[in-house]
Amino acid sequence: MQLIRCPWCGPREEVEFHYGGQAHVAYPDDPAALTDEQWARYVFFRDNPKGAFAERWSHSAGCRRWFNAVRDTRTYRFLAVYKPGEARPEVAS
Amino acid sequence: MRVDGYGRIDRSRTLGFTFDGRSYTGHPGDTLASALLANGVHRIGSSVTLGRPRGISAAWSEDATGLVQVEEPFPEPMLLATTVELVDGLVARGLGGQGRLAEVADTARYDRMHHHVDTLVVGAGPAGLLAARAAARRGERVALLDDRPEPGGSLTGTERIDGRPSREFVADVVAELATHPEVAHLQRTTAFGRYDDGFVLALQHRTDHLGADAPRTLSRQRVHRIRAGRTVIATGAHERPIVFADNDRPGILLAASARDLLHRYGVLAGREVVVFTGDDAAYAAAVDLADAGAAVTVVEARPQAPAHWAGAAADRGIPVLTGSLVAGTEGAPGDGRVSAAVVTGADGARTVLGCDLLAVSGGWNPTAHLFSHVRGTLAYDPALGAFRPGEDLDGVAVVGAANGTLDLAGCLREGASGERPPSADGEPERTPGAIVWRVEGPHDRQFVDVQRDATVADIARAVGAGMRSAEHVKRYTTIGTAHDQGKTSGVLASAITAELLGVPIEDLGTTTFRPPYTPVAFAALAGRERGQLFDPVRTTALHAWHVGAGAVFEDVGQWKRPRYYPRPGEDMEAAVLRECAAVRDGVGILDGSTLGKIDVQGRDAAVLLDRVYTNMMSNLAVGRVRYGVMCGPDGMVIDDGTVLRLAEDRFTVITTTGGAAKILDWLEEWVQTEWPDLRVHLASVTEQWAVFPVVGPRSRHVISRLFADLDVSNDAFGFMCWRDTELDGVPVRVARISFSGELAYEVNVNAWYAPAVWERLLAAGEKHGITPYGTETMHVLRAEKGYPIIGQDTDGTVTPHDLGMAWAVSKKKSDFIGKRSFSRAENTDPLRKQLVGLLPTDARTKIPEGSQVVEFCPDGALPAPPVPMLGHVTSSYRSAALGRPFALALVKGGRQRVGDVVHVPVGDALVPAEITSSVLVDPEGNRRDG
């Protein structure tokens, strides 16, 4: 079981966290202006890279705050954590 | 047999035990295995598929054969006789490879403990003891774990360290560790799994060795959950068997195990001993067994015996047959114990050596399991003929024999971690061993995994079937999948597979070790989380009243909710019909306290609710209530409920009981990740508010009687309004919300006052026959009105339009979650499944929920299979108001088909049912205002 570093609480047990899928998928500014395909891409399509992946996590059994993390999908290792609204940090995987 | 002058057992006390129905004695400090061998019992059981006699093959947890079922003091299957500590009154029997779970409840306690340490040391042998001492001296917080009853690892007591007997060295280090308050030293504790970031799980046996004297206050086993900054793996090595024909008989033991039995328990496992080895360490066994009175012959695979040991053997008259191999064995009639070793000499000649103990050493396999659990790679070491840790891992050190360091001096040096290592006095230098994995012979009698009855022939079949990787061969042959997880067979399986494939073993590699290192009972993993502590139970403030009223409860998530309140002689159907009639004809009362309630506050509270509900909430007036539906971005309904506007900047959002936590999370997610600019705060108030719907045409009388200052007229207090009042100074909020179509008042009060207010409502309603009702009646009443239950009548593929709730979807709002999906072509398909009513035309059959809806061809026959499914039944009840059963169903294009007759398979029959509107009772809504 990994330790995950919550940006607010520090390192905590993995079981305290909840996974929230790909990060930086913003709700469209004007959904009505999108084609069905563009909207479907927002609703259903997510990346699935091998390597560094920016994800949303929630410290659901702790401070209940959401944050973002860059994780290496090959090793599960967290490479960086950062708060919502912050830019994705440059990290080597 | 037991020999005098050896062993650390307490011979002043005698313990009685029973094995396979016969009585024996042993001593404190014995294991079941050592006591059996002391009593001359060598056959423990038989093998799992071939039924061959099996005995004790090793002295500790690496034993592959000595499986027993313990019956008393505590029934448990599939234990190794070598790891069961002897207690008075122990009753056990040998197994044929399979045990039997106890049929009585396990009344022992199991628990867990958490540790956070700087350094965790696994293994209290010479290397581990020194590593722990060095860390303790640095002032670190340390945990030292060891799986045996006493520390010292493989030290027999014959060694000398720093000029003193090795047991004194062990005692000194242990005593020093005890002076450090931040050192936790646990024996009988097996680190069984290592995970990410220095996390290790260990199982401690706390009471089994105490037998009947074990205090009931102590947990029997404890799982230690250890988070370590640094982990020192000092787990030693397992001696490796050699594969030859009939190598599975009782009386064939690993050489160091035979020596361990002598020094630890004073047990001489045979009088006529053949030692078969290509490794120096077995000579120590040969010499010690000879000194204890055995007649010993050494069969040495190497062309020459190491000089030191050749001299020691000569001194004792031990013949050493160099360049020789044991190719097979013979067994005694009866218990099948080995009676002779068939030896192939250097000149190729066959000799049969009579023996009752064949002690084998093929070298050593580092116990690298914990290193491998988190994918530390193992590398083949040709000097060992085995795999050892092959990379540096952050936060991990592997020392001593686990690292492939087999001499005591080397173990002491690696354990000392930079401190001056103690000296290993008089230790002869190790000479290179001969790597012998297998001696040529008949494949089908050469056992690789003795516990699985898997032979070289099985590996040959796997290779012949095209297996080329160690992992595939393992799964094809089952080698390494038994109780011992291949502790002694893993390297042999790799080596023999490589031999048969004609590839180097380093290219083939070995299988990955996975937790647990030794078997762990589910009871230990469950810990205290059993029975009533398995999952929290949530009860409302009225639970005691419900129990007293004889309620039958149902589980709704973690909540206990009254399902119905049967009167004497009533079954559920009768009780629910009575409760339903009471509500529609008079007045009923429900404990609705489990409904989710979220306090939404802030300047932008209305903006948030407009974005998450399909309908408009910002234009809701203070003092009013509105029903709303929430959807996901895909347009599918996720929850529904009512919203009370308390102030311009404050709402109470009511969710379904099951959706309470989910919807709070949902709102938090959007607020935190998409709309952090919104000034809004969310808090669950589910537990703070008790809610009692008072429902039925006579509910107005009850409310006006109890809350005298409340004007309950329709004009002053209309449908979907809320009003604050008080009862004896206690604030009460009353809302005109109806989940039944009847005139209804939902009474909200601080949960602290719930029992008192409930009693007052019952008293006020007494002369009107107020009837408490449960969730089943609630469900019937709402279904009669076509009100869906989200998650019962919906399944994540249902839109508000499918439910006939287009009226609840705003056309004015430019956007809300789900809106864009409603205009997708799929969501405007007229053949989408829609919620409708179904009335079985026989007016008698209650259709089971989940039933499929099918349709006959125009000729009145079922279509040919596969029969098209039109939809399914989502809710089905008997209705007191209708006087017949009815159902709700999701049916393709259902709303355009009202009046059609479809069929529902019930058992072997096809029940005709008419499609109706989903609203079956009071479709005009006349009853709402009483």
Automatic annotation (TrEMBL), chain A:
InterPro entries: SoxD, SoxD_sf. It comes from the Bacteria. Pfam families: SoxD. NCBIfam families: soxD. This is Sarcosine oxidase subunit delta. It comes from Pseudonocardia humida.
UniProtKB/TrEMBL annotation, chain B:
Transmembrane segments: none annotated. The keyword Oxidoreductase applies. Keywords: Oxidoreductase. InterPro entries: 2Fe-2S-bd_N (IPR042204), BFD-like_2Fe2S-bd_dom_sf (IPR041854), FAD/NAD-bd_sf (IPR036188), FAD/NAD-binding_dom (IPR023753), GcvT/YgfZ/DmdA (IPR028896), GcvT/YgfZ_C (IPR029043), GcvT_C (IPR013977), GCVT_N (IPR006222). Residues 118-371 form the FAD/NAD(P)-binding domain. Residues 542-813 form the GCVT N-terminal domain. Belongs to the GcvT family. Residues 833-922 form the Aminomethyltransferase C-terminal domain. This is (2Fe-2S)-binding protein. Residues 444-528 form the SoxA A3 domain.
